[in-house]
Specification:
Elements (H helix, E strand, L loop, with lengths): L6 H10 L3 H22 L3 H18 L9 H20 L18 H12 L3 H12 L4 H8 L3 H19 L5
Helix pairs in contact: 1-2, 2-3, 2-4, 3-4, 4-7, 5-8, 6-8, 7-8
């Protein structure tokens, strides 16, 4: 009998044994994906990087208890979502003058980015989270269900509803 173990499972096992290279490979594998997710939820690049690092810090702090049921990246998304929510909760306490300044980096298609961001902001939190994971992060419905802790049928409904509302807002038929 041959057991097919996935790469994440093996990396986690190596990390549990103290293999520093496994830690580095794990971070390199998912860092860009989690950073992109955090940048969508936290529009300041520096803070998005902080939340990405916080995501990996939280994972490594608890990875010994981590149970590998599928993809480790799904667990990272759950942690990243919580880190972003914590960030926004803390930001509400700050004064307006303490808000971060817009970074000086050049972004292609800034007008489209602003339009899409505004459209996403019109959605309820549940629809927005599902839409970001599906349309922007390009996660599979099954993975979204695991990340959000809901059924696939609810994910399908939310995607369809988000598609309708975004189409209405953006005036496009094929989102």
């Amino acid at each position: 009998m041959i057991i097919d173990l996935d790469e994440d499972f093996l990396l986690v096992q190596k990390m549990r044994m103290g293999d520093e290279e496994a830690f580095e490979r794990f971070v390199r594998k998912y860092y860009a994906e989690i950073l992109k997710y955090c940048r969508i939820h936290i529009r300041d690049y520096g803070y998005a990087e902080d939340m990405t690092q916080e995501t990996f810090t939280r994972f490594f702090r608890t990875f010994r208890q981590y149970k590998h049921y599928g993809k480790a990246v799904n667990y990272l998304y759950v942690i990243a979502a919580n880190a972003c929510k914590d960030y926004h909760r803390k930001r509400k306490e700050l004064l307006l003058e303490d808000l971060p300044k817009i970074p000086d980096e050049k972004i292609d298609g800034i007008e489209n980015t602003i339009m899409i961001t505004e459209a996403l902001d019109t959605l309820s939190e549940e629809l927005r989270e599902t839409a970001v994971l599906f349309f922007i992060q390009e996660r599979r419905q099954k993975d979204i269900a695991a990340i959000l802790g809901i059924g696939v049928s609810l994910v399908k409904y939310r995607i369809q509803r988000a598609r309708e509302l975004l189409s209405e807002y953006l005036g496009k038929e094929n989102i």
